[in-house]
Known about the structure:
Blueprint: E1 17-18, H1 24-57, H2 59-66, E2 69-70, E3 79-80, H3 81-106, H4 113-140, H5 156-166, H6 172-196, H7 203-221, H8 227-244, H9 249-258, H10 271-295, H11 302-308, H12 312-340, E4 343-344, H13 350-359, H14 365-374, H15 379-405, H16 408-419, H17 436-466
Parallel strand pairs: 1-4
Antiparallel strand pairs: 2-3
Amino acid sequence: MAAPTPPSAPTPPSSRKVLGRLSLPERKYVADALRTETVGGVLLLVAAIAALIWANTFGSGYEAFRGLHFGPGFLGLDLSVQHWAADGLLAIFFFVAGIELKRELVAGELRDPKAAALPVIAALCGMAVPALVYVAVNVLGDGDTGGWAVPTATDIAFALAVLAVIGTSLPSALRAFLLTLAVVDDLFAILIIAIFFTSDLNFLALGGAFVGLALFWLLLRANVRGWYVYVPLALVIWGLMYNSGVHATIAGVAMGLMLRCSRREGEEHSPGEHIEHLVRPLSAGLAVPLFALFSAGVSVSGGAIADVFTKPETLGVVLGLVVGKAVGIFGGTWLAARFTKAELNEDLVWPDVFAVATLAGIGFTVSLLIGELAFTDNLELADEVKAAVLIGSLIAALLSSVLLKLRVRKYRALYDEEERDEDMDGIPDIYEVGKPEYHLRMAEIHEAKAAEHRRLATLCVGAGADTGTATDDNVPGAARDGRGGPA
């Protein structure tokens, strides 16, 4: 009679990881998304530099061009070039942001409430603390507190451009954390714009926009296909939203959120992922750089730079981006990990989180937009706040570059480990450890290599015998002692 099998010990519950390794599908999605954003970030950087050069060399021409009006006036759309960029082109940016948010909610890091708690708390703290810093500086300095939302935004494209310039390849967990922060950041930036920067409402136009959105939703549910259906409808919805008094970019977000981002059986990509793949290059490569070209052109004379650090409004923006973002995101992440008892990924340390939090202090696109909306009645102050956004983002970029460079060897090792694919099956080896078929493939590969080296060794020995010099000197890799003889 066989001895009874002892009961197996209960498997301890796996502790949740802060910045843990991504699943393979999520890793692929993040890599593809960030690759496009990195290229777009470089274009954004070029556009911002071009705007600064243009505004500081031919300032009158720059102002005249971005103030040029065109468009159908009878539809209420006779807008300046600058407004077309801010209200029109950025709607494409926010459309992509809406798709990203929907995907994160149904298939990404935010689908699990417990897993979502950490990036959401980190992002909320990363917005609340900069706003508090701005308000505190302006209350103490008797400034205008209306710009409290300016330093709350993170520009993922610009942050990735900085990473590309300094040549730092972050491991996927840190890249995903940065992307998730930016997605949640965009969500709350959208809410801030919709709630605090909505002018007098035109309820007829707003009602028309809602009807258009309902029709958009019904067409999606009916699986109606064809860009020639959705693009004209999207333009009508955008025009109605603009005339309603609600910022027109909200239309882009709403349409992005309506797309289906969950995959059905037999689908390689969901409709939302497919459309995002098509539209993201347009957003990152054209819409956002053009917005930067017509919004980032401000005076950067010595006096203007000095004023940034003396006026409470501009100083609040700089400190909010540089100090508030870093303290808020790092503090929120640490507190969330502390109270949820989540453990930090063993490959990383808390200074890594602080470095990424500092990188998130690069607030450009949405910060510039909110700066325009917050100070519409004071254009001079609006330009000064834009200069503060540029300077604050530059300081945050420099600080984060230093912090990330201190760990660049560790990041490179982690990145290389994640990319290694010795069995060349298209799947990184790190995701196959523990699978018998993977280890059998690797055994065959190493056995083949060993057999080839044995064959080469035999050939070398044979060649030495033919010449009468078959010694250890003819065998590559043979051990030697310190005098050159066999060890």
